[in-house]
């Protein structure tokens, strides 16, 4: 709202746009995974997400807002792809691995608090460094899987 200089209703339009981007991207990413290795796509989209977050952190006005909307495209494939890659080849340990991945979602509960603390202390723009770092961790996981399965 601060960037837009508008009302909550106007800002809500951008939330709706990001949800539509997420929905469309989910279908697009599934079809792209038929051609591109999931780990490569994951790493690429995570790096794109990092770039968008850093742009939003330092980006000027509306361009930064659109970068945040575009982040939904990067997020659309993250969890199901991470889940599939991590559980591949576990055999009898798949249930244990799946339980561990579900517990790992705790990071998704803690990092918004970190981002919120930075938001309160430094402002909304700078707070996007936090998800940018998280995207880097996901990119590292994708690269790790690519190297492991050469």
Question: What layout of secondary structure does this protein have?
Answer:
Elements (H helix, E strand, L loop, with lengths): L7 H25 L5 H21 L2 H15 L2 H10 L6 H11 L1 H17 L1 H4 L1 H20 L2
* Helical coverage, percent range: over 70%
- In terms of DSSP E residues, the strand content is under 5%
Radius of gyration: 17 Å
CATH homologous superfamily title = MFS general substrate transporter like domains
E-strand count:
0
Order of helices and strands: HHHHHHHH
Query: Might you state the CATH topology name?
Result: Growth Hormone, Chain: A
Low-confidence stretches: none
Mean pLDDT: 88
Tell me what you see in this structure.
With 150 residues, the protein is mostly helical. The protein has one domain (8-148): Growth Hormone, Chain: A, CATH 1.20.1250. Helices cover 82% and strands 0% of the residues. It contains eight helices and no strands. The protein has helices at residues 8-32, 38-58, 61-75, 78-87, 94-104, 106-122, 124-127, 129-148. The protein is globular. The termini are far apart. The mean pLDDT is 88.
